[in-house]
Predict the structure.
Amino acid sequence: MHEGAITRQIVDSVLKEASNRKAKKVIEVDLLIGSLTFLNPEQVKFWYEILTKDTFIEGSKLSIRGSEAVVRCTKCNYEGSFKYVDDPALHVSMPTMQCPKCEGMVEIVSGKDCIIKSIRMSI
Amino acid sequence: MSKVSENIVKAEEGEVFDIELEKDVLEANRKLAEKNRELLKDKAITAIDVMGSIGAGKTSLIANLVQLLRKNYRIAVFKGDLTTTIDAEIIKRYGVEVVAINTGKECHLDSNLVMKALQKLNLDAIDLLLIENVGNLICPAEFPLGSDRRVVVVSVTEGPYMVIKHPFIFMDADVVVINKADLAKAMQVDMHKLKNDVKKVNPEAKVVFTNCRSGEGVSAVSKALDL
């Protein structure tokens, strides 16, 4: 939903990091997008191409990996993915805050993040 | 054995490096939200974020809550909208402090706008802050504001599938209000099915049926919010 604004921040961060390190060229940026964000990887790539145009990082590759949300149970300490509940009549499965192992409630550990993991650059 | 000084590995011209950055670009909003939370806590203000789709009845719910609670609380309201002060004026009639937050083209409030709005208030003169988010069931879920509790309002006129279509916003909700209960029959919407859907996503959310036109159910909302 906010790919334009978020990609602007990504490009600014990469530009800053690359110029601080006096990079000649940025080859690849490794980005991790959590499954609980509303960021569409295709849109992020689309914006990345536009926003890096005419900068010294133009032509660098943006590699995007998705990361599944991790939750932790407040009762039994289960840590892992969400439990999904199915509605067979509607062919949908909804994530639930209920623990897959016990009846406890889970809290979200990760999945709401969009992290620039690393930048490959030549110096 | 050669001297260390003669055996240095040097980066050559054009050498490639992988720089580990681990920078979360969504963190800026979360940090500001924490600042808001600390400020509100410091001033002993309870803040409630009211989210929901367009036309679900967020403003009506707030207007009702204001009337119910103004005897016991010194209330201020932040009214988020893309443009206009129409809703802000409606709430102002009930004699409480209202700050209109016009986002321009943004589809949600963020913690920076809330921080700016907080600067417009005398924080020593209030103890309850109701924040009406922009009408939207998607983006506000991604932008915490620093409130103590989050309310999501849906209404039967949006049809029977709002919860299963937008489960993420209900995950963080403390209270879910299902509004326009008086129209459920005409809309052929089963409110209990909507409630069950909320309970599936978030078993701990308190669900309240309301008719904000008549005020029915509003005291139950207030109770669910521990006010």
